[in-house]
Specification:
The chain is of the alpha+beta class and about 160 residues long. It has helices spanning about 5-30, 35-60, 140-145, and strands at about 75, 120-125, 130-135, 155-160. The chain folds into 2 domains: about 1-30; about 35-160, no CATH class. It has a 4-stranded antiparallel β-sheet with strand order 1-2-3-4.
């Protein structure tokens, strides 16, 4: 190999290396990994709350009630207990319904710490409930603000969005 060919090969290699380094730098600058993780966790939260809502709606439709739960008490996923038989973070035996539940365990928040918990409040007499969670992605901030609930910082769903403050 001649000196000229060797010089060209090394130069080409260095140019490719500089271009790749630049692309990686720009990719990390514009594709923020933590932003992506926040958004992914929020998608999971929204999906989990919808599943819990469906389970509670089926439970109520089966003429079950919230007699064992207290009004003005918040039940949250901080305990990390996931049983559907009343042993989970929501002390309600969802398995007592005659219809199959769409979930096999009570989901917990993907972080489940530092203020990121799923929480439920009920009105036992009216058989109504509210399920809340805090979202972390700016991409979903309008979802929390426009959900019809009374707390702009939380995503709220359920049959009475005024139960939790």
């Amino acid at each position: 190999m001649h000196k000229q060919e060797m010089f060209t090969s090394v130069t080409n290699f260095l140019v490719i290396l500089v271009v790749l380094a630049g692309l990686i730098y720009l990719g990390l600058k514009f594709i923020n990994p933590s932003k992506y993780l926040n958004k992914t966790r929020d998608q999971q939260r929204i999906s989990d709350l919808a599943k819990i809502q469906t389970a509670l709606d089926l439970y109520i439709a089966d003429n079950k009630n919230f007699d064992k739960l207290k009004f003005n008490q918040i039940y949250d996923s901080a305990s990390n207990q996931t049983g559907l038989d009343g042993s989970g973070w929501l002390p309600l035996n969802l398995l007592s319904a005659s219809v199959p539940m769409p979930i096999s365990f009570l989901p917990v928040d993907p972080l489940n710490k530092d203020g990121f918990y799923y929480q439920i409040g009920v009105n036992p007499q009216a058989k109504t409930y509210e399920i809340d969670c805090r979202l972390e992605s700016a991409d979903y901030s309008t979802k929390a603000k426009n959900d019809g609930g009374n707390n702009l910082d939380f995503y709220e769903i359920g049959s009475d969005l005024s139960i939790l403050k």
